[in-house]
Amino acid sequence: MSIEREDIGIMEDIDNMNNTPDTLTTNTIEKFALENRVKLNKVRRVCGDDRFTAEQSLGSVRVFGGDEGILTAIKAAATKAEIAVSATELVEKYEGILKKLYGDDTQIEVHTAQHALEKGTIGCGFMEKAINVPNIHEHLSNEDAREIHEAILAGAHKEVVLDGDHAAKSVMLVHSDEWSVNSRSEHEQHFVVDEGSITSYLREITPMFGIYGLNADDVVNQFESQMGKTAEQLAAGLNIYDINFDPQGHPSATFKGIVPSPELQN
Predict the structure, then answer these.
(1) Domain presence at residue 172
(2) Residue ranges with strand state E in the chain
């Protein structure tokens, strides 16, 4: 993505800051966010996978697992509330919600990876862990995740194929209604989650499922829990940064912590 003239001064300010270890890390993140910022496209959600190119994500709302991650959060919240609902029913309801919000041509999207296609395995790290790591999520069984994945693949859907390996340098949590950040440049990759936008989206769509007793707060809590547990599997040891944008679109990064290893949480 090209950098507009108004941003050049910001770039120079970043480069000229004191190069202590702490400011260098934060400033490097801010520089990446500025160079790779993109207008948020709220019509589409894709995974926060660091392998997505700008041409593949196209400013979409970034969320671990994309549409699949949204459905696993809904399923877990339903299970917690002791609401019986099948994967097929959830997928059908979500398809209807997407069409109502964004038009009849809108489909659920998934992604895989080239190496997974060649091996016949699951290419989305979020879903692969949800399906294969025993007891990774408190209210979502491995079979629940598998059934959601298979129900989506059995119907009309779009699939994006990623290339390359995971090489993320950080986890970026973006808080903006206008901007997102492309997760991959020519020389650098980061996990990206549009945490503010996806939280608002979950609160919007939860009542649209028409499931009595399904609570939006529970859905958001399950989403956050699933994101954290997945990060432990895929991003242990990486720094986490909150990314905010000012009214002119200039990013600021705040160090939030380090993704723990799974064994430290058990």
Answers:
(1) yes
(2) 37-39, 41-46, 60-62, 108-113, 157-162, 168-175, 179-181, 189-193, 239-245, 251-258
> What string of DSSP letters covers 140-175?
--HHHHHHHHHHHHHSSEEEEEE-S---EEEEEEEE
Burial class (CB in 10 A: 0-12, 13-18, 19+), 4: exposed
* Domain-located, residue 36: no
Structure tokens at 14: 């970043």
| Angle between helices 66-80 and 142-154 in degrees, nearest 10 | 130
63, 132 Cβ separation under 8 angstroms: no
Return the DSSP state at 207.
Answer: G
* 34 in a structural domain: no
How many domains is the chain built from?
1
Tell whether the torsion through CA atoms of 212, 63, 170 and 129 is positive or negative.
positive
**Domain coverage including residue 177:** 5-28+43-265
Give the pairing of strands 41-46 and 37-39. unpaired
Question: Is the pTM of the predicted complex or chain greater than 0.90?
Answer: no
DSSP structural state of residue 184 = B
Measured CA to CA, the distance from residue 222 to residue 259 in angstroms comes to: 18
The CA distance from 37 to 139, in Å, is: 35
Q: What is the pLDDT of residues 110-145, one digit of tens each?
A: 999 988 888 889 999 999 999 999 999 999 999 999
